[in-house]
Design a protein that fits this description.
The protein is an alpha/beta fold and 589 residues long. The chain has 24 helices and 16 strands. The radius of gyration is 26 Å and the shape is globular.
Length: 589
């Protein structure tokens, strides 16, 4: 047991926070070889029936899992399972497979085996993470169907013993979904990234997860207990009694904090002295909209519509967009839906293959030396007005089904808002001429993310109907520190004095123009930033839905006057590290 073997600490990639303490279980991915098996012409129809029944049973499984996830309040998982259901209706898994059985005269297992191999091969050479994830999903769905065709000779994730630490080469979504957080203490894998579906699922379930660990090497080690620290990315094998004690205490305090947070969901976001702070949700996947109620969101403060394009690898048509926006607006029942028009480019640029239809838009722009400073967001849309107009038409048509707001990303000059307003009015007039109704008011907002818009915020506040501060980009552009570059992460200070001054300026301008201002960057979900932002005058936040309880919980610990004093004190500092220290000392509660 612990103490007798040597303690070893391995450092990996932190994927899902939390502490897991338990015993190792090696989970082998199931990549067996299936021998070629031919069938006669007479057997073809029976084989197709066998396939259809396996497909139907798989669909049933996924629908059941979706219902469970819905009850558990894990919208991310419901959305991923929704994608799997869509795939099961895709010709790739229906008519194409049946055609292959007919043409090749092979058993369905053989056809699937080749399909999985083919996709795995393609997957290994692809760079684009969105495409990689889609391929991983196809392999996953194929395996689920295959499981219904013949028994699986290995322990399933749903049958793991208590306190299991799962060690695997890689995890696919369905396996991760089947793991119960009361049984599986943590995941440790060799492959896998932060944005993979398995990562999203483990975070939604609250199962700690560390990737980038040499699992093959672990197989050769004499393993007893294991501790996984998902926040630091540590895997501690054979911990000493002392280490075990330390981590057990940390784990206990996490559990207590989590219980406290759960109770915050149904509470108002208000300070001790009763000032209401409205908290909206940031959303990337429209399928998650129905679950926002569970998180206590006041509406959608930022729908990153570019994910409609990034997930499809093509621009959605006007009809597709209209249906999506209409459904979202309706399900919010009068609460605001802020749709940011496509913010494409910079760090949100797909690696489209030249033969893909929408690759033409990116080929024309070419490889930019500084994509973050290049043709992205509103600049991209003004360069391709046909894409912009399709999106605006869809939004205007959907506007009468709810409270839709339109938000312009990366504005760097006043004229950009004026141009968009003109286009909106032209489209509106055209729709009305055709007898198509729109909402009377569709507020038009301006994102403040670049230095020029922050400095000109008084003029922008007069022109726009609302402002939205995107601190993720504002920090990167003001400090000239790439938000995704590990070499500049030391320079990327959300609490830099210059940022605080700018936020104060923006709030003052918005207040004088009597326009609302919302803050939608990651800072809005940072407990150390929230009080200072309130002190600087922010009264609306928009954060990822899962952070809403934490934000409410933090707000409820402060009085408005204390927050204002904190902000006043902070504005005195000129150096970023000193300011950081001041905030750490003053905001720890
Ligand atoms: C931001 O820049 O703060 C923001 C919310 O937009 P995104 O993170 O999508 O660039
Ligand atoms: Mg941004």
């Amino acid at each position: 047991m612990a103490g007798e073997r040597e303690e070893v600490v391995l450092r990996g990639l932190p994927i899902s926070k939390g502490i897991g303490i338990g015993f190792p279980i090696f989970f082998t991915n199931f990549d067996e070889d299936i021998s070629e098996s031919q069938i006669s012409k007479k057997e073809i129809e029976d084989e197709i029936d066998r396939y259809r029944s396996a497909l139907a049973r798989s669909r049933n499984d996924v629908e059941k899992l979706q219902k469970i996830s819905l009850q558990d309040g894990t919208p991310e998982i419901v959305a991923i399972l929704g994608t799997h259901l869509e795939m099961m209706q895709d010709p790739l898994l229906t008519s194409v497979i049946e055609e292959k059985i007919r043409v090749r005269q092979q058993k369905i297992e053989t056809v699937f085996f080749h399909l999985i191999e083919e996709y795995k091969q393609r997957f290994s050479i692809l760079q684009d993470i969105y495409f990689q994830e889609r391929v991983r999903d196809i392999v996953d769905v194929s395996r689920r169907i295959l499981n219904h065709l013949r028994p699986v000779g290995r322990i399933r994730m749903s049958e793991m013993p208590h306190n299991s630490i799962i060690l695997a080469h890689e995890l696919v979504p369905s396996e991760t979904i089947e793991a119960s957080s009361s049984v599986v203490s943590a995941f440790v894998t060799a492959a896998g990234g932060i944005t993979s579906h398995a990562a999203i699922i483990s975070r939604a379930k609250g199962i700690p997860y560390v990737a980038n660990i040499d699992i093959k090497m672990l197989k050769r080690v004499d393993l007893a207990a294991i501790i996984v620290d998902g926040s630091q990315g540590l895997v501690i094998i054979n911990p000493t009694r002392q280490t075990l004690k330390k981590y057990s205490e940390v784990k206990k305090s996490h559990v207590e904090k989590y219980k406290l947070l759960k109770t915050a969901t149904n509470l108002k976001g208000e300070t001790i002295d009763g000032y209401e702070i409205r908290i909206f949700a940031n959303l990337e996947n429209p399928k998650e909209i129905d679950y926002l109620n569970k998180c206590g969101a006041a509406g959608v403060g930022l729908f990153r519509s570019e994910y409609l394009f990034l997930s499809r690898r093509r621009f959605p048509t006007e009809e597709e967009q209209f249906e999506i926006y209409k459904r979202m607006a309706r399900s919010l029942r009068g609460r605001p839906l802020v749709v940011r028009i496509f913010d494409i480019g910079g760090d949100k640029k797909p690696d489209l293959l030249p033969e893909e239809p929408d690759a033409k838009y990116f080929l024309k722009i070419g490889n930019e030396l500084n994509p973050a400073l290049g043709c992205r967001a509103i600049r991209f849309l003004l360069r391709y007005p046909e894409l912009l107009e399709i999106q605006l038409r869809a939004l205007l048509r959907a506007s009468r089904f709810g409270d839709i707001h339109i938000l312009i990303p990366m504005v760097s000059d006043l004229t950009e808002i004026q141009i968009i307003r003109e286009i909106i009015e032209r489209i509106r007039a055209d729709l009305h001429k055709k007898g198509i109704k729109t909402a009377k008011e569709i507020p038009l907002g301006c994102m403040i993310e670049v230095p020029s818009s922050a400095l000109m915020c008084d003029a922008l506040a007069k022109e726009a109907d609302f402002l939205s501060i995107g601190t993720n980009d504002l920090v990167q552009y003001v400090l000239a520190a790439d938000r995704n570059n590990p070499n500049t992460s030391e320079l990327y200070f959300s609490t830099h004095p210059s940022i605080l001054r700018l936020i104060r300026m923006i709030v003052t301008s918005a207040n004088s123009a009597r326009k609302p201002v919302v803050l939608c960057g990651e800072s809005a979900a940072d407990p150390a930033m929230i009080p200072i932002l309130i002190g600087l005058g922010i009264r609306e936040f928009s954060v990822a839905a899962r952070h809403i309880p934490l934000v409410k919980h933090t707000i409820r610990k402060w009085r408005i006057l204390e927050a204002c004093r904190l902000a006043e004190g902070a504005l005195e500092y000129a150096s970023a590290p000193e300011l950081k220290q001041y905030l750490a000392a003053e905001t720890a509660r």
